[in-house]
Amino acid sequence: MSKNQIKISNESESVDPQSLFQQFAPSIYFETPKISSKKDWFIMADQVVPATKEAFWETIRRWTMEPQFVIPPVERAEITLNESNEVDDHNGISDKPTETISRTLIPKRKSKDAALMEKIQYFENDKEARVIYEPLDSKLPFYYPKTYRNDNEQQGMLRLEVAPLDTLNPLVTDPKMQYALKTILHKLFKWCIQNRLGYTKKAHHDVLVPRETYQPMYQYMKAKYGPQLVANWTEQTDPKKFVYEDIAIASYLLCIWKQEEAKTKRRQNFVDLGCGNGLLTFLLSSEGHEGYGIDIADRKIWPALSGKKKDLLRVQALYPAKAIYPNTEWLIGNHADELVPWIPIIAAKSGANCKFIVIPCCFYGLDGTRSLSLPLSATLGKYRAYTDYIKDIASKAGFHVEQDYLRIPSTKNIAIIGRTRERDQNDNELAESVARASQAFVPRKTDREKEEERQESLKKPKLEK
Ligand SMILES: C[S@@+](CC[C@H](N)C(=O)[O-])C[C@H]1O[C@@H](n2cnc3c(N)ncnc32)[C@H](O)[C@@H]1O
């Protein structure tokens, strides 16, 4: 290792984090692999990493336990053995690992990809820290490099080495595999630096629904509805973005509703406020939940989604202060703009069994405008400040407020949920805000109305000069 690397990793903590992350510029040898010092191994890429050996080990442990964050087709790892060994190897001559782990990679698409058993060995001495991931099954999944073993590194230098099945042909020419290997190296580099900077994981996914419950539900919904919806999309928006995002949200809700049904013994029904294209309403209804969607403007795709359920998607301009939905279990507000802050209030009014989920997006206040002033700080971004504002309303409306980060492409992915009550809605401050806001709230004009107004204004005679 060069002196430069030691100097970087011992710098004072006033270091600029961006400058550390920007140091990612690996040397890649996919098509001209370098021969490693170990027989039958080839170096595929290396990258100086400005972090310590401890950060490296933290990163490797995370990769071992949570491979799904590095290898997307993997759902999770099952650890079947974790053995530590006493190794006195200061001279770097022992081949005995300090730790041996057996793990099985469980794929997301169980009907298509096989699970894969791996032996993982950690080695450490004064000179290097090294880990070997060795596949134990002869049939390797598509996402796995065609190797006996893959990987390894040293302090200060992340090095990706492989022992290819065919040592006469060690090149990696498949662009997808090159991309996968580069992604792994980048992720490990990032994690090493994050560890050095003391970052903790920002998002807290799977708080209310365990990943093992959500993932199979998502796979089921995706296979059942995804291709057909994407193929028949008639809106101008990108079907891939909308279809899979709404499938993910529907899957999450179906898992939450299963929990509720186990508790209440009642089938969960719903109203989707500001339902837009109606996709989420369609998915939940198709899975046997009674409910409907409301929006101020209809969409081209509605008749196709509604099918025989003529009332599934309804045009209505909501005045939230007047809205109430008795006998409704769930009010949904998915990126429902100005309706979002009102939804906990409407749910509180609608009866003791009425619950809500909102996924806030744009920063609307109760008055239906975006003139909200949010308390911002260095650590709290605007989106987090806004979700805190919505949580505060929900809590004042009497709900015990819960939160989860959804696994969706959108960065506005915080779901705020109220499914239990702490008290009656009797907050004076909230009552005053509601009274004031309900005077101010005016439903927005639809695009059609705006166009009609424009046409009208064109008809008016112009004043002569
Ligand atoms: C950003 S879109 C989201 C649509 C949908 N939930 C989704 O995620 O694709 C917000 C929707 O809320 C609807 N909306 C806003 N204010 C409304 C009101 N007062 N009454 C009915 N719908 C309203 C808009 O027409 C728009 O379709």
Automatic annotation (TrEMBL):
Pfam families: AdoMet_MTase. Residues 444-465 have a biased composition (Basic and acidic residues). Keywords: Cytoplasm, Methyltransferase, S-adenosyl-L-methionine, Transferase, tRNA processing. It is an enzyme of class 2 (transferase). Its EC number is 2.1.1.211. It is found in: Cytoplasm. Its main location: cytoplasm. Belongs to the TRM44 family. Adenosyl-L-methionine (AdoMet)-dependent tRNA (uracil-O(2)-)-methyltransferase. Probable adenosyl-L-methionine (AdoMet)-dependent tRNA (uracil-O(2)-)-methyltransferase. This is tRNA (uracil-O(2)-)-methyltransferase. It comes from Parasitella parasitica.
